[in-house]
Design a protein that fits this description.
This protein has about 290 residues and is of the alpha/beta class. It has helices at about 5-15, 65-80, 100-110, 130-135, 150-155, 170-190, 210-220, 240-250; strands spanning about 30, 40, 85-90, 115-120, 140-145, 155-160, 165, 190-200, 220-225, 255-260, 270, 275. Helices cover about 30% and strands about 20% of the residues. The strands form two sheets. A nine-stranded mixed beta sheet has the order 10-9-8-5-4-3-1-11-12. A three-stranded antiparallel beta sheet has the order 2-6-7. Helix 2 (about 65-80) runs parallel beside helix 3, helix 5 crosses helix 6 (about 170-190) and helix 7 runs parallel beside helix 8 (about 240-250). The structure holds iron/sulfur cluster (SF4) (2 copies). Belongs to the radical SAM superfamily. NifB family. Pathway: Cofactor biosynthesis; Fe-Mo cofactor biosynthesis.
Length: about 290
């Protein structure tokens, strides 16, 4: 991969707790749960919970309005100045919710120096790309579990796009096409891109190294292979062991840098990774209802 990152971006990455393993002990992130709706259905997702891309199961989120998110950010940053990144990661898909962009606008206005980060399934990435750029989002995560539609169609059951519902191979092809196009645009525009890949034994485990090669071609900065949390339609699949995941990470490492310290945080987590401060200390305004 070419090293065409600006010095400012290099500094921001060195202070991003997910992109840099060294940063995780010194810098924190704050997730703002402002995005409840989602436009696809992953077979490992139980919508009663947070987006499994960035969550642990069994914990429902409060959904904040953009103004509430700004107030929460102000309060938390005052008490935790080591937080360097504000991210939106759910509980649904951030790009499927206009509140995401309004929240970024409010945060950017008040905290111009902070790094803005987003995590998405990528379906709307090309369509909403200009808005993302205008929001000044610098680090982008796309959950990409396969680029072979025959595999992807086993992982998602539905895609809702442009007022139409897609299923089967057609849904898989559409999602993959949008993800690849979006990643390409983001890399070209100078964003630093991470992909999250859920390792699903028997479904995509033999495909992930090829995915890493593909991501290398696109200029993706880092890859996060996450173990399946077995729930919903995938409740009966046995999740991979740490050792099985490590074997795959090691095989992918020659192609894309591997993130190995992910803790599958909630979409309203804040603080240092793995040492989250309790959300119960914050006022709970609205409960997320699927
Ligand atoms: Fe669930 Fe996230 Fe998949 Fe949407 S993208 S179905 S919220 S895991
Ligand atoms: Fe970082 Fe992983 Fe937590 Fe996302 S889920 S904030 S990538 S540690």
């Amino acid at each position: 991969m070419k090293d065409c990152m600006s010095d400012d971006m290099k500094r921001k990455i060195s202070e991003h707790p997910c992109y840099s393993p060294e940063a995780q002990h010194k810098f924190g992130r704050l997730h703002l749960a402002v995005a409840p709706s989602c436009n696809i259905q992953c077979n490992y997702c139980d919508r009663k919970f947070d987006c499994v891309n960035e969550s642990r199961p069994g914990v429902t989120s409060e959904v904040l309005s953009p103004q509430e998110a700004l107030e929460r950010t102000t309060r938390i940053l005052e008490q935790n100045p080591y937080i360097s990144v504000i991210g939106i990661a759910g509980p649904g898909d951030p790009l499927d919710n206009d509140e995401t962009f309004e929240t970024f606008r409010l945060i950017r206005e008040k905290f111009p120096e902070i790094t803005l980060c987003i995590s998405t399934n990528g379906l709307l990435l090309p369509d909403r790309f200009d808005e993302l750029l205008e929001s000044n989002v610098e680090t982008l995560t796309v959950t990409m579990n396969a680029f072979d539609p025959e595999i992807q169609k086993e992982i998602i059951s539905m895609v809702y796009y442009g007022g139409k519902k897609y299923e089967g191979r057609e849904a898989a092809e559409l999602l993959i096409q949008k993800q690849l196009e979006g990643i390409e645009k983001a890399v070209e525009a100078g964003m630093t891109v991470k992909i999250n890949t859920v390792l699903i034994p028997g479904i995509n485990d033999k495909h992930i190294v090829d995915l890493a090669k593909k991501m290398n071609e696109l200029g993706v900065y880092i890859m996060n292979v996450m173990p399946l949390i077995n729930q919903a339609a995938f409740a009966d699949i046995v999740p991979p062991t740490d050792q099985e995941r490590k074997v795959i990470q090691d095989a992918c490492a020659p192609y894309v840098k591997q993130m190995r310290h992910c803790r599958q945080c909630r979409s309203d987590a804040y603080g240092l990774i793995g040492k989250d401060l309790s959300v119960e200390k914050q006022p709970r305004k609205k409960e997320f209802k699927p």
